[in-house]
Design goal:
Elements (H helix, E strand, L loop, with lengths): L6 H11 L2 H22 L23 H8 L3 H13 L3 E6 L2 E9 L1 H25 L1 H17 L11 H33 L10 H4 L9 H8 L3 H14 L2 E6 L2 E9 L1 H25 L1 H17 L13 H22 L6 H4 E4 L2 E4 L1 H9 L10 H12 L4
Antiparallel strand pairs: 1-2, 3-4, 5-6
Helix pairs in contact: 1-11, 2-5, 2-7, 2-12, 3-4, 5-6, 5-7, 6-7, 6-12, 7-11, 9-10, 11-12, 13-16
Protein backbone atom coordinates (compact mmCIF):
# COMPACT_ATOMS: atom_id res chain seq x y z
CA UNK A 1 0.00 0.00 0.00
CA UNK A 2 1.46 3.39 -0.95
CA UNK A 3 2.46 5.86 1.75
CA UNK A 4 -0.42 8.34 2.08
CA UNK A 5 0.95 10.52 4.87
CA UNK A 6 4.68 11.04 4.37
CA UNK A 7 7.09 12.17 1.67
CA UNK A 8 5.56 10.05 -1.08
CA UNK A 9 2.16 11.66 -0.54
CA UNK A 10 3.68 15.15 -0.36
CA UNK A 11 5.43 14.62 -3.71
CA UNK A 12 2.28 13.20 -5.32
CA UNK A 13 0.10 15.97 -3.87
CA UNK A 14 2.45 18.72 -5.07
CA UNK A 15 2.46 17.28 -8.59
CA UNK A 16 -1.34 16.99 -8.46
CA UNK A 17 -1.53 20.70 -7.57
CA UNK A 18 0.42 21.81 -10.63
CA UNK A 19 0.67 19.05 -13.22
CA UNK A 20 0.56 18.79 -16.98
CA UNK A 21 -2.85 17.15 -16.72
CA UNK A 22 -4.28 20.03 -14.66
CA UNK A 23 -2.84 22.59 -17.03
CA UNK A 24 -4.09 20.88 -20.21
CA UNK A 25 -7.53 20.30 -18.70
CA UNK A 26 -7.95 23.98 -17.90
CA UNK A 27 -6.51 25.29 -21.17
CA UNK A 28 -8.65 22.91 -23.21
CA UNK A 29 -11.80 23.80 -21.28
CA UNK A 30 -11.27 27.57 -21.55
CA UNK A 31 -10.51 27.49 -25.26
CA UNK A 32 -13.44 25.22 -26.07
CA UNK A 33 -15.80 27.30 -23.97
CA UNK A 34 -14.94 30.32 -26.08
CA UNK A 35 -15.28 28.26 -29.26
CA UNK A 36 -18.71 26.93 -28.25
CA UNK A 37 -19.92 30.37 -27.17
CA UNK A 38 -18.93 31.85 -30.50
CA UNK A 39 -20.47 28.98 -32.45
CA UNK A 40 -23.77 29.54 -30.67
CA UNK A 41 -23.63 33.24 -31.53
CA UNK A 42 -22.98 32.18 -35.15
CA UNK A 43 -26.27 30.25 -35.13
CA UNK A 44 -25.22 26.74 -34.16
CA UNK A 45 -27.59 26.27 -31.26
CA UNK A 46 -27.23 23.09 -29.24
CA UNK A 47 -23.56 22.55 -30.04
CA UNK A 48 -21.71 20.80 -27.21
CA UNK A 49 -18.04 20.41 -26.42
CA UNK A 50 -18.33 16.62 -26.56
CA UNK A 51 -19.29 16.85 -30.24
CA UNK A 52 -15.56 17.25 -30.87
CA UNK A 53 -15.29 13.47 -30.42
CA UNK A 54 -17.42 12.97 -33.52
CA UNK A 55 -17.42 15.78 -36.07
CA UNK A 56 -13.64 16.18 -36.71
CA UNK A 57 -13.32 12.41 -37.17
CA UNK A 58 -15.95 12.03 -39.88
CA UNK A 59 -14.00 12.24 -43.11
CA UNK A 60 -15.18 11.98 -46.69
CA UNK A 61 -15.32 8.18 -46.39
CA UNK A 62 -17.48 8.43 -43.28
CA UNK A 63 -16.99 6.65 -39.97
CA UNK A 64 -18.85 4.18 -37.76
CA UNK A 65 -19.69 4.51 -34.09
CA UNK A 66 -17.52 1.47 -33.42
CA UNK A 67 -14.51 3.12 -35.09
CA UNK A 68 -15.02 6.31 -33.10
CA UNK A 69 -15.43 4.44 -29.82
CA UNK A 70 -12.15 2.59 -30.42
CA UNK A 71 -10.36 5.79 -31.42
CA UNK A 72 -11.46 7.63 -28.29
CA UNK A 73 -11.21 4.59 -25.99
CA UNK A 74 -14.86 4.91 -25.03
CA UNK A 75 -17.52 2.24 -24.39
CA UNK A 76 -19.55 1.69 -27.55
CA UNK A 77 -22.92 2.44 -25.84
CA UNK A 78 -21.55 5.80 -24.68
CA UNK A 79 -20.33 6.67 -28.17
CA UNK A 80 -23.60 5.49 -29.74
CA UNK A 81 -25.53 7.84 -27.46
CA UNK A 82 -23.23 10.72 -28.36
CA UNK A 83 -23.60 9.97 -32.08
CA UNK A 84 -27.39 10.04 -31.77
CA UNK A 85 -27.13 13.43 -30.08
CA UNK A 86 -25.03 14.80 -32.96
CA UNK A 87 -27.45 13.29 -35.50
CA UNK A 88 -30.37 14.93 -33.71
CA UNK A 89 -28.66 18.31 -34.18
CA UNK A 90 -28.38 17.56 -37.91
CA UNK A 91 -24.58 17.79 -38.02
CA UNK A 92 -24.16 14.21 -39.22
CA UNK A 93 -26.44 11.62 -40.81
CA UNK A 94 -26.44 7.83 -40.97
CA UNK A 95 -26.26 5.77 -44.14
CA UNK A 96 -26.00 2.04 -44.75
CA UNK A 97 -22.43 0.79 -44.95
CA UNK A 98 -22.02 -0.56 -48.53
CA UNK A 99 -19.87 -3.40 -47.24
CA UNK A 100 -22.22 -4.42 -44.41
CA UNK A 101 -25.90 -3.49 -44.41
CA UNK A 102 -26.09 -4.12 -40.67
CA UNK A 103 -23.73 -1.20 -40.02
CA UNK A 104 -24.45 2.49 -40.32
CA UNK A 105 -21.77 4.91 -41.45
CA UNK A 106 -21.76 8.53 -40.40
CA UNK A 107 -21.34 11.40 -42.85
CA UNK A 108 -21.29 15.13 -42.36
CA UNK A 109 -24.38 17.00 -43.46
CA UNK A 110 -24.03 20.34 -45.25
CA UNK A 111 -24.80 21.98 -41.92
CA UNK A 112 -22.15 19.84 -40.22
CA UNK A 113 -19.49 20.74 -42.78
CA UNK A 114 -20.41 24.40 -42.58
CA UNK A 115 -20.11 24.27 -38.80
CA UNK A 116 -16.75 22.50 -39.05
CA UNK A 117 -15.42 25.23 -41.35
CA UNK A 118 -16.69 27.97 -39.05
CA UNK A 119 -15.25 26.17 -36.02
CA UNK A 120 -11.75 25.96 -37.50
CA UNK A 121 -11.96 29.64 -38.52
CA UNK A 122 -12.96 30.61 -34.99
CA UNK A 123 -10.17 28.42 -33.58
CA UNK A 124 -7.75 30.27 -35.84
CA UNK A 125 -9.01 33.61 -34.50
CA UNK A 126 -8.76 32.39 -30.89
CA UNK A 127 -5.21 31.20 -31.51
CA UNK A 128 -4.26 34.47 -33.24
CA UNK A 129 -5.38 36.31 -30.12
CA UNK A 130 -3.51 33.76 -28.03
CA UNK A 131 -0.37 34.39 -30.06
CA UNK A 132 -0.68 38.13 -29.58
CA UNK A 133 -0.86 37.65 -25.83
CA UNK A 134 2.05 35.21 -25.61
CA UNK A 135 4.27 36.69 -28.25
CA UNK A 136 5.14 35.08 -31.58
CA UNK A 137 8.36 33.46 -30.37
CA UNK A 138 6.80 31.75 -27.33
CA UNK A 139 3.74 30.73 -29.33
CA UNK A 140 5.82 29.27 -32.18
CA UNK A 141 8.02 27.28 -29.80
CA UNK A 142 4.99 25.96 -27.93
CA UNK A 143 3.26 24.98 -31.19
CA UNK A 144 6.37 23.08 -32.23
CA UNK A 145 6.45 21.22 -28.91
CA UNK A 146 2.75 20.34 -29.23
CA UNK A 147 3.36 18.89 -32.70
CA UNK A 148 6.24 16.75 -31.41
CA UNK A 149 4.19 15.50 -28.46
CA UNK A 150 1.30 14.62 -30.79
CA UNK A 151 3.61 12.57 -33.02
CA UNK A 152 5.25 10.87 -30.02
CA UNK A 153 1.85 9.81 -28.69
CA UNK A 154 0.87 8.60 -32.17
CA UNK A 155 -2.19 10.85 -32.22
CA UNK A 156 -3.97 10.59 -35.55
CA UNK A 157 -4.67 13.62 -37.70
CA UNK A 158 -8.46 14.12 -37.80
CA UNK A 159 -9.88 13.25 -41.25
CA UNK A 160 -11.99 16.42 -41.24
CA UNK A 161 -9.10 18.09 -43.07
CA UNK A 162 -9.86 15.89 -46.10
CA UNK A 163 -12.45 18.52 -46.99
CA UNK A 164 -10.86 21.36 -49.01
CA UNK A 165 -13.09 23.89 -47.24
CA UNK A 166 -11.53 22.90 -43.90
CA UNK A 167 -7.99 22.25 -45.11
CA UNK A 168 -7.35 25.82 -46.19
CA UNK A 169 -7.82 26.99 -42.58
CA UNK A 170 -6.58 23.90 -40.76
CA UNK A 171 -2.87 24.68 -40.30
CA UNK A 172 -3.50 27.92 -38.40
CA UNK A 173 -6.34 26.49 -36.36
CA UNK A 174 -5.12 22.99 -35.55
CA UNK A 175 -3.33 23.76 -32.26
CA UNK A 176 -6.58 23.86 -30.34
CA UNK A 177 -7.55 20.41 -31.58
CA UNK A 178 -4.06 19.06 -30.91
CA UNK A 179 -4.19 20.26 -27.30
CA UNK A 180 -7.58 18.59 -26.91
CA UNK A 181 -6.21 15.33 -28.30
CA UNK A 182 -3.17 15.36 -25.98
CA UNK A 183 -5.37 16.17 -23.01
CA UNK A 184 -7.77 13.31 -23.77
CA UNK A 185 -4.89 10.90 -24.34
CA UNK A 186 -3.43 11.69 -20.91
CA UNK A 187 -6.87 11.56 -19.26
CA UNK A 188 -7.83 8.24 -20.85
CA UNK A 189 -4.47 6.63 -20.10
CA UNK A 190 -4.55 7.59 -16.42
CA UNK A 191 -8.19 6.55 -16.10
CA UNK A 192 -7.59 3.13 -17.67
CA UNK A 193 -4.50 2.44 -15.57
CA UNK A 194 -6.39 3.40 -12.42
CA UNK A 195 -9.09 0.90 -13.28
CA UNK A 196 -6.46 -1.77 -13.94
CA UNK A 197 -4.88 -1.02 -10.55
CA UNK A 198 -8.14 -1.77 -8.76
CA UNK A 199 -9.78 1.64 -8.47
CA UNK A 200 -12.88 0.10 -10.00
CA UNK A 201 -15.39 2.62 -8.66
CA UNK A 202 -13.73 5.52 -10.44
CA UNK A 203 -15.87 7.51 -12.88
CA UNK A 204 -14.83 10.26 -15.32
CA UNK A 205 -17.28 12.67 -13.72
CA UNK A 206 -15.38 12.46 -10.41
CA UNK A 207 -12.57 14.58 -11.83
CA UNK A 208 -14.38 17.88 -11.36
CA UNK A 209 -14.45 17.23 -7.60
CA UNK A 210 -11.19 15.33 -7.06
CA UNK A 211 -9.13 17.93 -8.93
CA UNK A 212 -10.23 20.74 -6.62
CA UNK A 213 -9.60 19.29 -3.18
CA UNK A 214 -6.95 20.89 -1.03
CA UNK A 215 -5.00 18.70 1.37
CA UNK A 216 -6.74 20.48 4.25
CA UNK A 217 -10.16 20.17 2.64
CA UNK A 218 -12.33 22.26 0.33
CA UNK A 219 -15.94 23.42 0.55
CA UNK A 220 -18.39 22.25 -2.07
CA UNK A 221 -19.37 25.87 -2.74
CA UNK A 222 -15.75 26.77 -3.47
CA UNK A 223 -15.48 23.92 -5.97
CA UNK A 224 -18.71 25.05 -7.65
CA UNK A 225 -17.38 28.60 -8.02
CA UNK A 226 -14.03 27.40 -9.35
CA UNK A 227 -15.75 25.25 -11.99
CA UNK A 228 -18.52 27.77 -12.74
CA UNK A 229 -21.27 25.22 -12.13
CA UNK A 230 -24.08 24.98 -9.61
CA UNK A 231 -23.48 23.90 -6.05
CA UNK A 232 -26.15 21.24 -6.53
CA UNK A 233 -24.23 19.69 -9.44
CA UNK A 234 -21.04 19.48 -7.37
CA UNK A 235 -22.96 18.09 -4.39
CA UNK A 236 -24.34 15.25 -6.51
CA UNK A 237 -20.89 14.29 -7.80
CA UNK A 238 -19.35 14.73 -4.35
CA UNK A 239 -21.86 12.30 -2.87
CA UNK A 240 -20.88 9.73 -5.51
CA UNK A 241 -17.18 10.15 -4.71
CA UNK A 242 -18.00 9.73 -1.02
CA UNK A 243 -19.89 6.51 -1.70
CA UNK A 244 -16.95 5.30 -3.80
CA UNK A 245 -14.70 5.90 -0.79
CA UNK A 246 -12.36 8.52 -2.26
CA UNK A 247 -13.43 11.54 -0.19
CA UNK A 248 -15.26 12.25 3.04
CA UNK A 249 -16.78 15.24 4.77
CA UNK A 250 -15.29 16.86 7.87
CA UNK A 251 -16.40 19.93 9.85
CA UNK A 252 -14.96 23.20 8.58
CA UNK A 253 -12.62 24.43 11.34
CA UNK A 254 -13.34 28.06 10.41
CA UNK A 255 -17.14 27.77 10.20
CA UNK A 256 -19.09 25.34 12.35
CA UNK A 257 -22.04 25.46 9.94
CA UNK A 258 -20.00 24.26 6.96
CA UNK A 259 -18.18 21.11 5.92
CA UNK A 260 -15.15 20.38 3.81
CA UNK A 261 -14.34 17.54 1.46
CA UNK A 262 -11.03 15.81 2.17
CA UNK A 263 -9.30 12.82 0.63
CA UNK A 264 -9.67 9.50 2.42
CA UNK A 265 -6.76 7.09 2.56
CA UNK A 266 -8.13 5.45 -0.59
CA UNK A 267 -8.44 8.85 -2.25
CA UNK A 268 -4.80 9.60 -1.50
CA UNK A 269 -3.84 6.25 -2.98
CA UNK A 270 -5.80 7.16 -6.12
CA UNK A 271 -4.07 10.53 -6.48
CA UNK A 272 -0.65 8.98 -5.81
CA UNK A 273 -1.24 6.27 -8.41
CA UNK A 274 -2.53 8.81 -10.94
CA UNK A 275 0.57 10.98 -10.56
CA UNK A 276 2.78 7.89 -10.92
CA UNK A 277 1.07 7.16 -14.25
CA UNK A 278 1.56 10.76 -15.33
CA UNK A 279 5.26 10.41 -14.50
CA UNK A 280 5.40 7.36 -16.77
CA UNK A 281 3.74 9.26 -19.63
CA UNK A 282 6.26 12.07 -19.21
CA UNK A 283 9.18 9.62 -19.16
CA UNK A 284 7.93 8.08 -22.40
CA UNK A 285 7.68 11.52 -23.96
CA UNK A 286 11.17 12.46 -22.79
CA UNK A 287 12.54 9.33 -24.43
CA UNK A 288 10.80 10.20 -27.71
CA UNK A 289 11.18 13.97 -27.99
CA UNK A 290 14.05 14.69 -25.60
CA UNK A 291 14.01 15.98 -22.03
CA UNK A 292 14.71 19.56 -23.09
CA UNK A 293 11.70 19.69 -25.44
CA UNK A 294 9.48 18.07 -22.81
CA UNK A 295 10.62 20.51 -20.14
CA UNK A 296 9.87 23.41 -22.45
CA UNK A 297 6.41 22.00 -23.16
CA UNK A 298 5.70 21.52 -19.44
CA UNK A 299 6.95 24.98 -18.48
CA UNK A 300 5.03 26.75 -21.22
CA UNK A 301 1.82 24.85 -20.49
CA UNK A 302 2.15 25.91 -16.84
CA UNK A 303 2.73 29.53 -17.86
CA UNK A 304 -0.26 29.51 -20.18
CA UNK A 305 -2.38 27.97 -17.43
CA UNK A 306 -1.44 30.81 -15.08
CA UNK A 307 -1.77 33.39 -17.84
CA UNK A 308 -5.34 32.27 -18.52
CA UNK A 309 -6.29 32.46 -14.85
CA UNK A 310 -5.77 28.84 -13.82
CA UNK A 311 -5.67 28.08 -10.12
CA UNK A 312 -5.32 24.89 -8.13
CA UNK A 313 -4.84 23.63 -4.60
CA UNK A 314 -1.76 25.01 -2.85
CA UNK A 315 1.29 22.72 -2.88
CA UNK A 316 2.90 22.04 0.48
CA UNK A 317 6.33 20.54 -0.25
CA UNK A 318 9.51 22.58 0.44
CA UNK A 319 10.33 22.77 -3.27
CA UNK A 320 7.14 24.76 -3.78
CA UNK A 321 7.19 26.98 -0.71
CA UNK A 322 8.85 30.00 -2.35
CA UNK A 323 6.74 29.73 -5.52
CA UNK A 324 3.59 29.47 -3.44
CA UNK A 325 4.53 32.53 -1.42
CA UNK A 326 5.14 34.58 -4.57
CA UNK A 327 1.88 33.31 -6.07
CA UNK A 328 0.02 34.33 -2.92
CA UNK A 329 1.58 37.79 -3.01
CA UNK A 330 0.64 38.16 -6.67
CA UNK A 331 -2.96 37.19 -5.98
CA UNK A 332 -3.16 39.70 -3.10
CA UNK A 333 -1.55 42.40 -5.21
CA UNK A 334 -3.89 41.88 -8.14
CA UNK A 335 -6.96 42.12 -5.92
CA UNK A 336 -5.57 45.23 -4.33
CA UNK A 337 -4.57 46.89 -7.60
CA UNK A 338 -7.91 46.30 -9.28
CA UNK A 339 -9.77 47.54 -6.23
CA UNK A 340 -7.75 50.74 -6.08
CA UNK A 341 -7.25 51.57 -9.76
CA UNK A 342 -9.99 49.89 -11.73
CA UNK A 343 -12.72 49.23 -9.17
CA UNK A 344 -12.92 45.63 -10.36
CA UNK A 345 -12.56 42.22 -8.77
CA UNK A 346 -12.76 40.02 -11.90
CA UNK A 347 -8.98 39.68 -12.06
CA UNK A 348 -7.43 38.19 -15.19
CA UNK A 349 -3.74 37.24 -15.38
CA UNK A 350 -3.77 38.06 -19.10
CA UNK A 351 -4.56 41.71 -18.32
CA UNK A 352 -1.49 42.32 -16.20
CA UNK A 353 1.17 39.85 -17.36
CA UNK A 354 3.32 39.57 -20.45
CA UNK A 355 5.50 36.67 -21.63
CA UNK A 356 9.02 36.50 -22.86
CA UNK A 357 11.60 33.72 -23.14
CA UNK A 358 12.39 33.89 -19.40
CA UNK A 359 8.85 33.71 -18.06
CA UNK A 360 6.06 36.16 -17.39
CA UNK A 361 6.30 39.65 -15.94
CA UNK A 362 4.06 42.55 -15.06
CA UNK A 363 3.19 44.66 -18.08
CA UNK A 364 4.99 48.01 -18.26
CA UNK A 365 1.81 50.05 -17.86
CA UNK A 366 0.97 48.09 -14.70
CA UNK A 367 4.44 48.81 -13.32
CA UNK A 368 3.82 52.50 -14.04
CA UNK A 369 0.57 52.26 -12.10
CA UNK A 370 2.54 50.86 -9.19
CA UNK A 371 4.96 53.78 -9.31
CA UNK A 372 2.15 56.31 -9.28
CA UNK A 373 0.02 54.76 -6.55
CA UNK A 374 -0.84 56.92 -3.55
CA UNK A 375 -0.30 54.37 -0.82
CA UNK A 376 -1.92 56.60 1.81
CA UNK A 377 -5.26 56.21 0.02
CA UNK A 378 -5.65 52.57 1.05
CA UNK A 379 -8.63 52.02 3.29
CA UNK A 380 -8.38 50.87 6.88
CA UNK A 381 -5.29 52.93 7.72
CA UNK A 382 -3.06 49.97 6.85
CA UNK A 383 -1.32 51.75 4.00
CA UNK A 384 2.20 50.97 5.24
CA UNK A 385 1.58 47.20 5.07
CA UNK A 386 -0.01 47.66 1.65
CA UNK A 387 3.01 49.62 0.47
CA UNK A 388 5.37 46.89 1.66
CA UNK A 389 3.31 44.26 -0.13
CA UNK A 390 3.47 46.17 -3.39
CA UNK A 391 7.20 46.80 -3.04
CA UNK A 392 7.78 43.07 -2.60
CA UNK A 393 5.89 42.46 -5.81
CA UNK A 394 7.74 45.18 -7.66
CA UNK A 395 10.94 43.33 -6.77
CA UNK A 396 9.55 40.39 -8.78
CA UNK A 397 9.16 42.58 -11.88
CA UNK A 398 11.73 44.27 -14.05
Amino acid sequence: MPDTTGELWTAAYDKYCSSLFRHLTFIDRKMHQELNDRLEVAGYAGVKKKFIRVIPYVGREGATATELAKLHRMPLPTMAKLVNDVVAQKYVLKRDDPSDSRVKRLFLTKRGLRMAVDAIKISREILDSFQNGLGKEVYAEFSGCVAKVSRALDIATPPIQQYPEVRRHYERGKLQLQLYQIHKYVESTIFERNLEAGFSKMQNSFGIVLSNIDDEGTRIGDIARAENVTKQSISEIANKTIRAGYVEKIPDPTDGRSQRLVFTGLGRQLITHSMTQLDEIERRLAADIGQETLDHFLRTAARIWQFMGGVGPRPKGPAFSNASAVEGLLEDWMKLLYTMLLDRDDVSMAEVLVFDKDGFFLKPDIVRHLSNLDYTSFSGGDHENMRKLLEKLRAKTR
